[in-house]
Amino acid sequence: MLDSSTIGNLLKGRRVLVTGAARGLGYDFAMSLCQAGAQVAMADILADTLEQSVETLRAKGYPVHGVVVDLADPESVRQCAAQAVQRLGGLDGLVNNAAITNSGGVGAQELEVAVWDRVMAVNVRGTWLMSAACQPALQASGRGAIVNIASDTALWGAPKLLAYAASKGAVIAMTRSLAREFGAGNITVNAIAPGLTLVEATEYVPEARHRLYHDQRAIQRDQVPEDVSGSVLFALSDLARFVTGQLLPVNGGFVFN
């Protein structure tokens, strides 16, 4: 958790939708946004976990909203965007955080086509569809910002993680294209590429991979969600109003951009 005295009212009054917000990085993003004064809609496919997370933040005094979404279903994506806009009264920011891996530890020859297609449907197509669905509301706000959560696996070529790394490489390329397209509507679009972060989703990662990241970072320690949240807040804030189409690796110096 970031220190609320540090982030203050950086995003006071901003209305932000965060996907994949039921747990892990997405949950920390949602909480940090609330601490910075934003109104937040939390979206996830994990309905029960999402409900618990929403209740937890509401107990802390944050009036967050929960929206169930399946990013692989175009209609579900459209409904999620519409519900977020309706509940928040508009939209100033979108954090495309939700993603799946499904291919960890499997080599290119063993990777199943169905797994590849599912990863691409959620991570790539879902990011595109959510961005497109939210674009009108973001443009109407006059200060719209999209933050796409990529991964440094796409930058250093993580082995036996082909579908995930490829999907995150596509997210980086998509960020640049969307920045060109949405810029006319005063919408910024940037990507953040975290390194291996200690969250529920990385518990499956072999210990050797954790040690590799730890030992090869310029800052040699484990990465935690709070290490990433500050960059997300920056990219959504007025401090970054003239920053768009950019990629920011946040990994303690494991990969330099």
Topology diagram in text:
Blueprint: H1 4-7, E1 15-19, H2 24-35, E2 39-44, H3 47-59, E3 65-68, H4 74-88, E4 93-96, H5 113-141, E5 145-149, H6 153-156, H7 162-182, E6 188-194, H8 207-216, H9 226-236, E7 247-250
Parallel strand pairs: 1-2, 1-4, 2-3, 4-5, 5-6, 6-7
What does it look like?
The chain has helices at 4-7, 24-35, 47-59, 74-88, 113-141, 153-156, 162-182, 207-216, 226-236; strands spanning 15-19, 39-44, 65-68, 93-96, 145-149, 188-194, 247-250. It is an alpha/beta fold. The chain has one domain (4-250): NAD(P)-binding Rossmann-like Domain (Rossmann fold, 3-Layer(aba) Sandwich), CATH 3.40.50. The protein has a seven-stranded parallel beta sheet, with helices on both faces. Helix 5 links the parallel strand 4 and strand 5 (145-149).
CATH superfamily: NAD(P)-binding Rossmann-like Domain
Total count of strands: 7
Distance between the termini: 26 Å
Overall spatial form: globular
Structural class: alpha/beta
Q: Sheet bearing the most strands, described?
A: 7 strands, parallel
Q: How many structural domains in the coordinates?
A: 1
Helix content: 40-55%
Radius of gyration computed on alpha carbons: 17 Å
Report the order of strands and helices: HEHEHEHEHEHHEHHE
Q: According to CATH, what is the class?
A: Alpha Beta
